[in-house]
Amino acid sequence: MNAENPLKPWRTAGLSVDGVKPPRTSLILLAILGLGAAAYGWFRSVPRGVEVVAARLGPAVELVYATGYVEPRRPVSVVARTTAPVRDVLVEEGDSVRRGQPLLLLDDREQRMLLDQAAAVRVRATLDERRALTLYGQGWVARAARDEAVATATGARAGEAAARARLDQMVVRAGIDGVVLKRDVQPGDLATPSRALLQIGNVRDLWVTATVDERDVPQLRVGQQALLKSDAWPGRVIPARLVELTPGGDPTQRAFRVRIVPDDRSGLPIGLSLEVNIVVQQKANAVLVPNNAVSDGAVWKIVDGRAVRQPVRVGIAGSELTEVSTGLKPGEMVILNPTADLAPGVRVKPAGPAKAR
């Protein structure tokens, strides 16, 4: 008796290949694959709705952002030249002052007594000088005695002048014309040469001191244009100019200070905080697209109703628009927010009318 063939044909009804009928599961899998291919082809043939915009010509501006505050260009700290209690404060914050105007009075009782003592010494020395000169003229005293009396009188007069000058130091005066910006003293406080009592500045000679990240410093140059804004004046932009870049930075904050002079300094209160945008680069006619149209160094254009990935070189990048220096022409349609599954050749159509941006 012949042994049974282990490769015995299936006895399942259906199609067969070389006399061998496939199992039912294989037929089902083939059907699914066929349907998937058909569905994929149908999916590619249906245009996908996308949001588009036309590349356009416009100004491109690259800015360096910073924050700053208004301060006088040459503020003066007022200190006493001697140590003494403060007797009276003659000015308030915001007062206008003139050079030489008294600002503070210090307790001068001790200095007045010292001046009286020096004056008495001067009177006695002057009388001795006159007597010695008279006697020398009559031949009663030697020349050495006369010279000693003259020197003593001269020293006494100098001592009185020094005491008078120290008394004058009990009145603290303004060193410049300006406005009292800060007052940090009250009657009864002890004034010392190391303590700032007042600050004076010229409100017509102001600038903005701003802090710039150290990564942006290589792009800055004296003379660059700047734009100033403040929440105090919504919608107002103040033109300004970069006039100074400090040579030393702050290593803890990794930042540098810059000084900016506004074109119009009227009405700027000292201490006002400002947003500063320094213009480091600008082009008048650049090809611009929204930032969300550029991804991984390329844009997606629409050519004959299909998506085409176009590599581009970007230039100035702003907060909303990016310059495309090569790879794109004005008027060409690009896709906004391209999805990761967007493939070259996929049919697309604008989901709505293109909007100018």
Question: How would you describe this protein?
Answer:
This protein is α+β, with helices and mostly antiparallel strands. It folds into four domains: 79 residues, conserved putative lor/sdh protein from methanococcus maripaludis s2 fold (Beta Barrel); 91 residues, Efflux pump adaptor protein, beta barrel domain (Elongation Factor Tu (Ef-tu), domain 3), CATH 2.40.30.170; 61 residues, OB fold (Dihydrolipoamide Acetyltransferase, E2P) (Beta Barrel), CATH 2.40.50.100; 61 residues. It has a six-stranded antiparallel β-barrel. Helix 2 runs antiparallel to helix 3.
Tell me the strand order in the biggest sheet: 3-12-15-14-13-16
Oligomer: single chain
Question: How many β-strand runs?
Answer: 22
* First and last CA, distance: 89 Å
Shape: rod-shaped
CATH fold-level topology of the largest domain: Elongation Factor Tu (Ef-tu), domain 3
Give the rounded overall mean pLDDT. 85
Which percent band covers the strand fraction?
35-45%
**CATH evolutionary superfamily of the largest domain:** Efflux pump adaptor protein, beta barrel domain
Helix content class: 10-25%
CATH architecture classification name of the largest domain? Beta Barrel
Class by helix and strand content?
Answer: alpha+beta
Sheet with the most strands, sense and barrel status: 6 strands, antiparallel, barrel
Taking Cα atoms only, what radius of gyration do you get, to the nearest Å? 44 Å
CATH class of the largest domain: Mainly Beta
**Sequence stretches where pLDDT stays below 50 over 5 or more residues:** 1-17
